Amino acid sequence: MKSYIPKRATVEPCARIEAPVRFFGAVRVREACRIGQFTMVNDRTTLFPQTAVGRYCSIGKGCEIGAPMHPVGWLTSNPAFFAVEQHFPEQSDLFPQTAFEQYAPTTIGSDVWIGSLAIINAGVSIGHGAIVGGGSVVTKDVPPYAIVGGSPARLIRYRFDEETVQRLLATQWWKLPPEELATLDVTHVHEALETLEARYDAPAPVRLRA
């Protein structure tokens, strides 16, 4: 299967992409990123280093995923004191450097929808099936199937009741071969769940991928 990556997009060689994915416009994928298949990323969105995005995600325009952190408890939050080579290479001998992790691993589960202009801080985990409202700033982990919004982002509600959420997570449907999903009625979640659960209980159950 072929991915759709325009010429304006920038993908670092060490990023791993599971085809097919679809990028629009000037998407930027930094080093050590991973993106699952059928994920869609819109124009001017950046995935910062060590960001992992699951399958079947929808990411809006102008988002920052895994946005770098700064040391707010130091005398200064300026990177001249922890990343001078990156930002001020000609002054690399001027300031002593102190180790600071700007890009903690960031995890976006599968079936996550992130609205345009959202910022996901480095080190945050977004659970499977979650929705992040446009323009939100996410500073803390988001539970599976939660809908969050605001700055900082807060819980608005869940997409489904707790029992349905647990059933969805148990199926791990995003790990199924696409051909298995093509036969489901995705517009009726409970009927789709019953179909999936029956397939898992069959004498020859379907196999999940990694």
From TrEMBL:
GO molecular-function terms, A-Z: acyltransferase activity
PROSITE patterns in UniProt: HEXAPEP_TRANSFERASES
Pfam families attached to this UniProt entry: Hexapep
Keyword field: Acyltransferase, Repeat, Transferase
Superkingdom, natural source: Bacteria
Keyword Acyltransferase belongs to the record: yes
Keyword flag Transferase: yes
PANTHER family hit by this protein: ACETYLTRANSFERASE, ACETYLTRANSFERASE RV3034C-RELATED
Similarity field: Belongs to the transferase hexapeptide repeat family.
Protein name, as recorded: CatB-related O-acetyltransferase
Organism of this sequence: Sulfitobacter albidus
Top-level taxonomy: Bacteria, Pseudomonadati, Pseudomonadota, Alphaproteobacteria, Rhodobacterales
